[in-house]
From TrEMBL:
Keywords: Kelch repeat, Repeat. Gene3D superfamilies: 1.25.40.420, Kelch-type beta propeller, Potassium Channel Kv1.1, Chain A. It comes from the Eukaryota. Signal peptide: none annotated. Pfam families: BACK (PF07707), BTB (PF00651), Kelch_1 (PF01344). Residues 111-178 form the BTB domain. InterPro entries: BACK, BTB-kelch_protein, BTB/POZ_dom, Kelch-typ_b-propeller, Kelch_1, SKP1/BTB/POZ_sf. This is BTB domain-containing protein. The lineage of its organism: Eukaryota, Metazoa, Spiralia, Lophotrochozoa, Platyhelminthes.
């Protein structure tokens, strides 16, 4: 009877094991009841292996090798199914283990090493330190004398910092404050515990303010925290004016201040505030800081100050007269304002507009508009004193040149203009230049090198032109160059590899597919491989060493425009055109290039309506995307890329 009772109990246990195997792993973890296996004479308790999940067939994957021992009996076969096992875990076990280890540390139980810092001793477990610190792993595994030491004194760390880092090692948590952060960061860096270092950096990033930004910049430099230092530096650049007002600027070193002043991202309302910041910094400790003032003034963009500021507010400062380096920079700035026409060829790092963002500038409908590609901000710039009607524009040395176009706003008028103007974004001002030798519209205007403009072809009233003329910025004079082989208008031109290419356009006998090249050295025009499609009123831009032609139109037998949609690219080395997969329907649009992308502003769409869109063609992906939809329609082939002051 006793044997029968045991067998009955065994059968019930097996049935219960099968039922348990059909439950979720989380339930198996909660029902850890011992199973009684074997006969009366060999009754054994065997705990289920919770690390192995039940199989899909409902048979428990328990193995007799883990706790039951011996050969499997017939009653144990249900636990030896050959199903694939799954790993299950107790979610709170790692935290419990850490907590128990920390409790052992606090009670000094089983500790086999004592760390000492600042006269304070900390009992610890050597294996825990090796597992968490690269410093200790190297010290205890390289045969160094520290490997067998029972007490180790740490130099260069404080007791408070070591205590906080040890708490992190045993708990994963840090008690941080701005006052304690440097000690803890120093200890974590010294012991090479990267997780603790990252926690400190994240905390300091959140605590960054005007009160502590200079000290945190010093901290990032001391511990070579490049990414954190870059974030602090960005904060200083964006809050520079507040930095000056609260007095934190005085705590910067000369090298740190010079680095900030030389950055295009420095956010200031005007360059005079930059100059005043240098004066303010110098006056804090004039004797010790005077030797560094020359390097600092070299970072101030004095030519961007108005002539009035230079004379009335800068020249009267003592060190600007007495320190030779400062005096030279002041003279340079004054000379820059004296020769207005030559300013584009007098560009230096000190004449650059202080901004790192680029804007698409559009000159249309007598207006000058700008769209910031980074902030998506749309703005109107100062209008020219003389209305401009569909001029040709181009950019040279971050100046906008607008030449020619229609003589007046009468759409029926065929008269062209020869007047030329230059827009300077540094002062949001226009300046009129010497006019072209011939009035022209529907022509091409390109900048060659850093010192010349070329006006190519076009028309005036009933005359189609083949003449070409060049403006030398240094002399301010236009002179004729060798003419084109054919008179043409509504063509496109671009500079690529220092050569000027002219494509398509309309001649007396209709639209053409020609491509010609001007060699500056020989001053000769040469024919190249013709485009795959005839077109005019199109876009041509150079990206890298390739030309891209987009949009345009031809005319049907009735004189109505027919869009040309294929996009082509030209390899100047192979003298070969390639038809690309993408296409676009646009004509008489403005364009400019940034990196590998061609921005297309306005123009006439497929339905002969002026577009109010800014599109971009990615030459690497061969696709067109919409960038922005403006509230007004943009017309005219008048678009360029410029860097504008932050206030515009």
């Amino acid at each position: 009877m006793e044997m029968e009772g045991a067998n009955q109990q065994l059968l019930q246990a097996e049935q219960q094991a099968v039922a348990d195997s059909q439950q979720p792993p989380s339930l198996l973890l909660q029902q850890q009841q011992p199973l009684v296996l074997g006969g009366l004479g060999s009754r054994r308790k065997c705990w289920p292996e919770t690390s192995r999940a039940p199989s899909a067939g409902g048979v428990s994957p328990l193995s007799t090798s883990g706790g039951c021992g011996g050969a499997a009996t017939s009653s144990e076969k249900c636990f030896k199914a050959g199903q694939e096992s799954r790993m299950v875990s107790a979610a709170g076990y790692p935290a419990k283990l850490l907590s128990q280890l920390n409790l052992l540390r606090l009670c000094s139980d089983y500790c086999d090493l004592t760390l000492s810092a600042g006269g304070v001793q900390f009992p610890v477990h050597k294996n825990v330190l090796v597992a968490s610190s690269d410093y200790f792993r190297a010290a205890f595994s390289s045969g160094m004398r520290e490997a067998g030491a029972s007490c180790l004194e740490l130099k260069g760390v404080t007791a408070e910092g070591l205590q906080a880092v040890l708490e992190f090692v045993y708990t994963g948590s840090l008690a941080l404050s701005v006052d304690r952060a440097e000690d803890i960061l120093n200890t974590a860096s010294h012991l090479q515990i990267s997780e603790a270092v990252q926690l400190c950096i994240r905390f300091l990033q959140l605590a960054l303010s005007l009160d502590n930004c200079v000290e945190l910049l010093n901290l990032s430099e001391l511990y070579c925290l490049d990414e954190f230092g870059s974030n602090v530096r960005t904060f200083l650049l964006e809050n520079f004016e507040d930095l000056c007002r609260c007095g934190a600027l005085q705590r910067l070193t000369a090298a740190q201040l010079s680095d900030l002043l030389g950055d295009n991202r420095l956010r200031v309302a005007g360059e005079y505030l930059v100059f005043f910041a240098v004066v303010q910094w110098l006056e804090h400790e004039p004797d010790s800081r005077l030797p560094a003032v020359g390097d600092l003034i070299d970072q101030v963009r004095l030519p961007l100050l108005s002539g009035e500021h230079l004379v009335e507010k800068v020249s009267c400062i003592g060190f600007m007269r007495d320190v030779p380096a400062c005096s030279d920079r002041l003279t340079e700035a004054k000379d820059y304002h004296l020769v207005v026409n030559k300013q584009p060829v007098m560009q230096t790092p000190r004449t650059r507009v202080r901004n790192h963002q680029r804007s698409v500038v559009m000159c249309h409908a007598e207006n000058l508009e700008a769209f910031n590609l980074a902030t998506k901000r749309h703005a109107f710039l100062k209008d020219c004193a003389v209305p401009l009607y569909n001029p040709c524009i181009c950019e040279l040395a971050n100046f906008l040149y607008a030449c020619g176009g229609r003589y007046d706003g009468n759409e029926a008028s065929e008269m062209a203009s020869a007047r030329c103007f230059r827009y300077d974004p540094r002062f949001d001002a226009w300046h009129e230049l010497v006019p072209m030798n011939e009035a022209r519209k529907d022509f091409a205007l390109v900048a060659t090198g850093n010192s010349c403009l070329m006006a190519i072809g076009g028309q005036d009233e009933n005359m189609v032109m083949c003449t070409v003329e060049r403006l030398c910025i240094a002399t301010g004079e236009w002179r004729f160059l060798p003419s084109l082989q054919h008179a043409v208008y509504c063509h496109a031109a671009a500079v690529c590899d220092s050569r000027v290419f002219v494509s398509g356009g309309q001649r007396y006998d209709g639209y053409c597919d020609s491509l010609i090249c001007y060699e500056p050295d020989s001053e000769l025009w040469a024919s190249r491989a013709a485009m795959l499609n005839k077109r005019g009123n199109h876009i041509m831009e150079c990206v890298g060493s390739r030309l891209f032609v987009l949009g345009g139109n031809v005319e049907d037998i009735y004189g109505f425009p027919v869009p040309v949609t294929p996009i082509e690219s030209y390899n100047s080395i192979a003298d070969q055109w390639t038809l690309l997969r993408c296409s676009i329907t646009i004509r008489e649009a403005g364009s400019c290039v940034l990196d590998s992308r061609i921005y297309i502003a306005g123009g006439l769409d497929g339905e002969n309506y002026y577009s109010h869109s800014l599109q971009v063609y990615d030459t690497q992906k061969d696709e067109v995307q919409l960038v922005e939809r403006f509230p007004t329609r943009i017309y005219g082939r008048v678009c360029c890329l410029m860097t504008l002051p932050q206030g515009l």
